[in-house]
Amino acid sequence: MAAAMKEGVALEEMFLQLKNEFVMKKKLDPKTVRAHFLARVKEGPPRKIDMLERYKLSLFFLLPVALAILLGAILLGDTLLEISEGRHYCALETNQFLMEMVRPIFNCELCRNMTRIERIPKISRQEFLEKYAYTTIPVVITGATDGWKALDTFSYRYFKKLYTHHRGGMESVDKDCQFFNWGYPFESMQHVFNMTDAQADLEPGEESWYVGWSNCHGDTAKVLREHYETPYFLPEKSETSTLDWIFIGWPGPGAFMHIDKVGRPSWQAQISGRKKWKFVPVPECAGICKDEYEVIVEKGDIMILDSNQWYHSTFVMPGEISITIGSEYD
Ligand SMILES: O=C(O)CCC(=O)C(=O)O
Ligand SMILES: [Fe+2]
């Protein structure tokens, strides 16, 4: 995971360097910019990609991908069926190169005039629908968790107790959901809940930590749902995924720069602590949108993001432990 973290940082550096190069040069069309980015990620130094090379490049990538899909369909038949039925989240381990290859081209007009990420204290369903729900523009709705029990109950010990008492909860995260250690030395949730009380509380001299997981265990989800509500501004007809995402950890680096392939936009409520989010537009928006955007999410705020369309990373600000819960919506 440390290697993956390094890879994430290197990718981000390369990405920003490329963006600067493109801004210095004359305007290139988005497809060419993306092809350059993919070529640089795969092959190192930049080079001109002509039609023949492009053709070879496509064959080079598409042939193994097609074979892998065929093999995967044979070997992972059941899992794929589960995914198609929405019972499984992801068949492949996160791979940023693959993510970049499969994501759709972004409409850079959406961020052309975007100077910052807005923090809005109150928003009606209608305004949210028109401006943010499906536009991919990140936004923070402040003070949006009033009355949520989670603000008083969620803590490291609360989750430890919940997952220890509900048989199968932890195992199902390992087996059917996802666990991210973001480069910190935890192999699984069992490992996280076995740390010493001193480290859990980040007593002086202890190492900071930050992890995240999705919960797809029915009984545990039922209990979690007693502690939070569907954000009041989500469109009436939208449905929140049955998958909850929890991220918890102390000040320091959180998620490293990445892009997801989850299919839907998501909300994330800050239940404790403060977290800085960094958003970087995709390569084809170089010179059209700002190089990066930052916003701090405070306790009680809800972040809205389309993690499929923006590279994003997080950093927990000094102070309390950061705890968030979120989900996708459609
Ligand atoms: O909250 C975090 O640290 C990362 C969240 C994230 O990557 C996501 O919601 O897609
Ligand atoms: Fe993400």
From TrEMBL:
InterPro entries: JMJD6_ArgDemeth/LysHydrox (IPR050910). The keyword Transmembrane applies. The chain crosses the membrane at residues 57-77. One of its GO terms (molecular function) is 2-oxoglutarate-dependent dioxygenase activity. Keywords: Membrane, Transmembrane, Transmembrane helix. PANTHER family: ARGININE DEMETHYLASE AND LYSYL-HYDROXYLASE JMJD, CUPIN-LIKE DOMAIN-CONTAINING PROTEIN. This is Cupin-like domain-containing protein. It comes from Ridgeia piscesae (Tubeworm).
